Recover the amino acids of this structure.
């Protein structure tokens, strides 16, 4: 005859069962919290370990850290080898395997302090639905923009789907970098991207975009608003994918008068940065309003950038006096001097380092590396920067 269980033993049984299940729930919750924190901190590194993050946090380093705009590109033979394996430049940007490789090539060769995502500022119009092509010896060619209404129904899911390979590239590059190398993401500023969208490619006189902006101000403002929205989402996703610093390239800021500069350069950039800092309060943002001249100071004060990248037309003496008291500075060797190399490069390099190197400073070029740059000149530049502290 089966012995019946007492109420006490039954209670103990249910208590143990309940306690065990509660324990399982706690373990599951702990695991969920742990994985969430791990995901959030996966791409976070201490600024004390990465020279560029130290500078962007207000510290002066001797020697200063450096990276070069367009450091991955046609001047490197290993880049040309990868480029020959894909049909066009757009495919190169959108194939993570190749984009990761070319992003890392200059890091392996020169050990720069930052890797910058290999991509292009025209990824945004591409993801918005404008046809973008890169033709040999002609550069970018974009579908003629007759009406901006096609971009008004901005679909964020479609947008991010188009740019998925870019985010994958960032994630993969981040996993390959050591604890001293910063990963930089970027976008083109709304004004500069708008020039390509309206002009249909590169231009020297900006006639079409200027005419459009002045004759159809509401439509142009609408286009800038779309680009602000798209750029924010693009950069936000780059950050969550692993980018530790953002640079905003406004390559054609210098063609505008002061009123237009404030309206079409400062205002959109300020809005993008404000929105980014709501999501990522501590993400450093480097602004590059090329050839802004005396308006560099207003750009810094009004946009909220962490640092400013300067083109080669900015006098280093003026920069030391007027810009470095405001924020960290990046720049500004003339890319043509890097092509020349030798004594001319040494003199320019020493002037920049001796004038700007005592304050928070990142060495860079005034624009991108030119395709005709000898790789050995970049190696010489690297050696000079790394040994500079021993000469001061």
């Amino acid at each position: 005859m089966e012995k019946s269980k007492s109420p006490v033993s039954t209670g103990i049984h249910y208590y143990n069962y309940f306690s065990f299940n509660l324990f399982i729930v706690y373990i599951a919750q702990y695991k969920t919290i742990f994985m969430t924190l791990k995901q959030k901190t996966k791409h976070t590194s201490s600024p004390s370990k990465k020279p560029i993050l130290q500078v962007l946090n207000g510290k002066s380093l001797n020697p200063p850290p450096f990276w070069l705009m367009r450091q991955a590109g046609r001047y490197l033979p290993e880049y040309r080898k990868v480029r020959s394996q894909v049909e066009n430049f757009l495919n190169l940007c959108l194939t993570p395997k190749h984009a990761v490789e070319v992003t890392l090539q200059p890091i392996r060769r020169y050990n720069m302090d930052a890797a910058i995502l290999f991509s292009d500022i025209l990824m945004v119009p591409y993801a918005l639905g404008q046809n973008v092509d890169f033709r040999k010896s002609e550069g970018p060619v974009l579908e003629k923009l007759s009406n901006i209404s096609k971009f008004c129904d901005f679909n964020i899911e479609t947008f991010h789907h188009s740019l998925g390979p870019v985010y994958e590239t960032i994630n993969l590059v981040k996993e390959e970098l050591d604890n001293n190398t910063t990963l930089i993401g970027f976008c083109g500023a709304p004004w500069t991207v708008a020039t390509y969208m309206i002009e249909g490619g590169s231009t020297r006189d900006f006639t079409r975009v200027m005419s459009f902006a002045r004759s159809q101000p509401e439509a142009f403002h609408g286009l800038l608003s779309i680009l602000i929205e798209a750029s924010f989402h693009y950069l936000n996703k780059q950050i969550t994918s692993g980018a530790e610093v953002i640079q905003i390239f406004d390559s054609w800021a210098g063609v505008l008068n002061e009123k237009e500069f404030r309206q079409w350069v400062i205002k959109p950039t300020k809005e993008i940065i404000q929105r980014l800092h709501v999501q990522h309060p501590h993400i450093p943002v480097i602004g590059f309003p090329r050839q802004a001249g005396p308006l560099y100071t207003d750009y810094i004060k009004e946009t909220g950038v962490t640092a400013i990248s300067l083109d080669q037309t900015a006098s280093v003496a003026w920069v030391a006096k007027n810009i470095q008291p405001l924020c960290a500075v990046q720049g500004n060797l003339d890319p043509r001097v890097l092509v020349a190399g030798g004594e001319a490069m040494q003199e320019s390099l020493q002037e920049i380092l001796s004038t700007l190197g005592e304050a928070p400073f990142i060495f860079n070029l005034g624009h991108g590396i030119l395709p005709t740059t000898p790789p050995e000149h970049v190696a010489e530049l690297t050696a000079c920067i790394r040994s500079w502290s021993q000469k001061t």
User: Anything to note?
Assistant: The beta strands are 114-116, 132-135, 139-142, 182-188, 245-250, 285-289, 307-309, 328-333, 361-365. The CA atoms of residues 310 and 331 lie 5 Å apart. The radius of gyration is 25 Å. Confidence is low (pLDDT under 50) at residues 1-47.
